[in-house]
């Protein structure tokens, strides 16, 4: 598993709170697979890391729960989608070795954050589906079974997302905090990928690309309402997304960063302020 930064640790705490809010017991500190704190940046305050749910700490602000169990649940699933989106891009290029870690992250780093909530929400568990996909990505990535299993995994995540009421999933008040969580995480991953003006951690660059792309997809679900009710904010968000995407011209990183991490953070902040 990759080394985690504080911004990646919030859902392990936040989703534990969410589980309690949904009726399941909230674990005591140190239980539920949580590991010791390992802060490495100043991006967000320290937080607890959760076993397989390590990357489940991605998203949100201030290293804490959003305060909305549905937002925290959706953010974890959105991060899964971002990972699989970038994995699909890599597989389409025949780059199966680089796709493999992105296929592993949803089950190894995020599933633990939603596992306890799925039954509460009457969603079938899909850990086995993700594990089978990850196994195939290592043993038979070019097989027809691989793409079939990929589609099954995406459908399982979509089914978990669909457990959230339609009116919530179509509401800017719900969707924008999820987008903020994705983009905050993307900015941290992008920064972590760079050293001496060079991309030294390709996986982190690719992670951040996937999160931004899925954040943009989510925004499309509320863009019409935003354009009608908050036209100035809508235009600013759209412009910021266009500027932000310039940092990821392709699934493979450029020789040198096109945007400085500070510029990425600035654009992310603009979207958050307009949310």
General description of the model:
The two termini are 33 Å apart. The chain has a two-stranded antiparallel sheet with strand order 1-2. Strand 3 and strand 4 form a beta hairpin. Helices cover 63% and strands 3% of the residues. It contains eleven helices and four strands, in the order αββααααααββαααα. With 275 residues, it is mainly alpha-helical. It has three domains: 51 residues, no CATH class; 91 residues; 109 residues. It is globular, with a radius of gyration of 18 Å. Helix 4 runs antiparallel to helix 5.
Descriptive keywords:
275 residues, mainly alpha, two-stranded antiparallel ribbon, 11 helices
Task: Please tell me how large the radius of gyration is.
Answer: 18 Å
Q: Specify the structural class.
A: mainly alpha
Query: How many strands appear in the DSSP assignment?
Result: 4
The whole-number mean of residue pLDDT values reads 83
Instruction: Characterize the largest beta sheet: strand count, sense, and whether it forms a barrel.
Output: 2 strands, antiparallel
Instruction: Provide the helix percentage.
Output: 55-70%
* Low-pLDDT runs: 1-64
How is the largest sheet built, in terms of strand order?
1-2
Distance between the termini: 33 Å
What pattern of helices and strands is seen along the backbone?
HEEHHHHHHEEHHHH
Question: How many domains in all?
Answer: 3
Please report the number of helical segments: 11
In a few lines, what is going on in this structure?
The protein is mainly alpha-helical and 275 residues long.
């Amino acid at each position: 598993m990759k080394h985690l930064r504080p911004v990646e640790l919030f859902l392990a705490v936040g989703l534990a709170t969410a589980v309690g809010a949904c009726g399941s017991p909230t674990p005591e500190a140190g239980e539920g697979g949580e590991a010791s704190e390992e802060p490495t940046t100043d991006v967000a305050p320290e937080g607890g890391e959760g076993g397989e749910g390590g990357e489940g700490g991605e998203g949100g602000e201030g290293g804490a729960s959003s305060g909305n169990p549905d937002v925290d649940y959706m953010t974890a699933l959105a991060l899964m989608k971002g990972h699989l989106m970038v994995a699909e891009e890599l597989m389409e290029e025949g780059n199966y070795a680089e796709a493999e870690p992105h296929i592993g992250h949803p089950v190894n780093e995020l599933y633990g954050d939603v596992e306890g909530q799925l039954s509460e929400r009457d969603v079938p568990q899909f850990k086995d589906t993700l594990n089978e996909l990850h196994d195939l990505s290592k043993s038979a990535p070019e097989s027809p079974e691989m793409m079939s299993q990929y589609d099954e995994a995406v459908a399982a995540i979509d089914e978990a997302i669909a457990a959230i009421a339609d009116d919530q999933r179509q509401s800017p008040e719900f969707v924008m905090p999820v987008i903020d969580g994705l983009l905050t995480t993307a900015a941290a991953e992008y920064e972590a990928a760079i050293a001496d003006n060079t991309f030294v951690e390709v996986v982190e660059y690719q992670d951040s690309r996937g999160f931004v792309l899925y954040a943009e997809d989510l925004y499309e679900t509320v863009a019409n309402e935003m354009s009608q009710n908050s036209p100035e904010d809508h235009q600013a968000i759209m412009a910021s997304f266009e500027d932000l995407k310039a940092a990821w011209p392709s699934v493979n990183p450029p020789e040198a960063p096109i945007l400085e991490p500070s510029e990425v953070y600035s654009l992310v902040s603009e979207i958050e302020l307009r949310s």
